Amino acid sequence: MALRDPLVAPVHGDQLTDDADPAACAADLLGHAFQRPELLREALTHRSAVPGRRIGGGRMVPATGAGSNERLEFIGDRVLGLLIAEWLAERFPDEQEGQLGPRLADLVSQTAIAAIAEHIGLPALLEVAPGESRAGVRKLATVLADATEALIGALYLDGGLAPARAFVRRAWHDAIHAQAKPPKDAKTALQEWLAARAKPPPGYEVVAREGPPHDPVFTVAVAAAGERGEGTAGSKRVAERLAAEDLLRRLGA
Fold first, then answer.
1. How many folded domains does the chain comprise?
2. Annotated active-site positions, please?
């Protein structure tokens, strides 16, 4: 069976037709015939869709995340970073780490990955709990970015770097070619924007920390110029960057 280019005629909307198989559609989007299709199903499974477990008295407790796409997202995040770093080194042979680093951070940011997920029609393929679906979880940037990284992780585990590289270079083609100059880090851009308008520097604050000690999730808020932004990530540094990006958007910068 011929597999179409994943960036041609993407799936639209939040629902598939009744006879559509999300895993088969995802394989088509990725351009790879999976030997282990169970990896695809796992990559498409949001934590909310994993059944809870019963304890004494028949009481249900939330699922631990096993069976969801969290483990594949962990792998895919590293694979994506490697493949984008490799590509940048090829494309910009005269640039050093100080220029390549901001390019990499921009291309693997939650915002960039979520935009690609939307473009290829990933929201319609995700398996989420009915309540979460009604709440619009398929449109959340965090969910879309995690699922995209999980799919890359599934590609890597099923076929190695070659199919993962092929997909990344198709999906990120426009984004990487649009980078005429190295982008500024969001925190730096925010600070410069405020300084140019004689505004006080931003203040960052960790407003929530969830998850176990070995796998924390931080929510950071940043306030400046009468506005407030928030970001959530597995490290305070990344959460601060996402919060700065959010605030820049709210400020129209």
1. 2
2. 77, 149
